[in-house]
Amino acid sequence: MSAPGRLPRWADYGLLPLLNLCAALLISGLVIRLIGESPWAALKLMAAGAFGAQDSVGYTLFYATDFVFTGLAVAVAVHAGVFNIGGEGQAYIGGLGVGLVGLAFGSWSPWIVVPLGIAAACAFGAAWAFVPAWLQARRGSHIVITTIMFNFIASALMTYLLVNVLIKPGQQSPESREFGPGAVMPSVHQALGMIGIPFAPSPFNLASLLALAACLLVWVFIWRTRWGYALRVFGQNPQAALYAGISPQRTILVSMLISGGLAGCLGVNELMGSEHRILLDFPGGAGFVGIAVALMGRNHPAGILAASLLFGALYQGGSQLAFDMPHVNRDMVVLIQGLVILFCGALENIFRVPLAALLCRAGGSGRT
């Protein structure tokens, strides 16, 4: 007899997330109706804002690239049984590494500076994840608490640096000077233009290729290497892993270092690819959205890609919705995004048991 709530893989990976998304959209539609707007018109506006033009697609894919990095960061840690919610702080400090490379070596060749920036993003993000990982592995501190604390510490550190150290001379806004030309990640519309394919300008840049490579590498590491197998064994049964000779301390440290390095790569997309300088709060909450992305994508790179595209569309389409509907302000858009995160993240299992029972009855009736 199958366990209560046990679903076949196609339902667990496809149907259940779809039900959660539909529930979130349904409640969002009710809220929009209550303020006097048409839910169907709002949905069409969001879809058009996300995919209705080339520049809209570019912005959607730009946001999705951020969510791929943070979603993968959460997923790697979850496979090891570790809940890393410090992706926001790790992305922040990873961006600091990117920014320091851009400020120091921006006059060098991009063939040197861009790889240095990627390496710095990974190194700084991993370093910021190391202390919470070490505290859990060696001292038993709960990693949820320490990663939350390190998010606030990262924010305070970046504020201090941008106000007192890295701020561009002669300006009031807390941001650094612009990077040199060697520290600019080429945009997709520039790359396509070089081969004769026109595409509307947008922040969408070649860091998206890095995100795709990260998906492939994470899949290979988790499911095709002995280190990934050990990590999954520890995440599913720590006692069995310890009996098999797998070190809990090493597993926690390795998973968190990889997780922090992945989150740090967000800085490559945002700073080298779009802003070309260090700004306050450039992650924009992507570290927290990565939690919902990983949960909705079932901690698998393919699912994370799909979930990242959805949340990228919500971000870009929500901006268009707030612009075109007079009664839907930015706070209402955030509410819609929050409902999707709620149902696809915290309440992702709300339909699991009823759906499993329904499929079980359908299967039983089919056999009879």
Task: Explain this structure.
By secondary structure, this protein is mainly α. It has a domain at 68-298. Helices cover 74% and strands 0% of the residues. The protein is built from 16 helices and no strands. It has helices spanning 9-34, 39-51, 54-79, 87-105, 110-139, 143-164, 188-194, 207-224, 226-236, 238-243, 248-264, 266-275, 286-296, 301-324, 330-346, 352-367. The longest helix is centred in the middle third of the chain and has 30 residues, at 110-139. The radius of gyration is 22 Å and the shape is globular. 45% of the residues are buried.
**How would a textbook summarize the main sheet?**
none
Label the overall shape. globular
Oligomer: single chain
Rg from C-alpha positions?
Answer: 22 Å
Give start-end ranges of low-pLDDT stretches.
Answer: none
Distance between the termini: 17 Å
* Portion in beta strands: under 5%
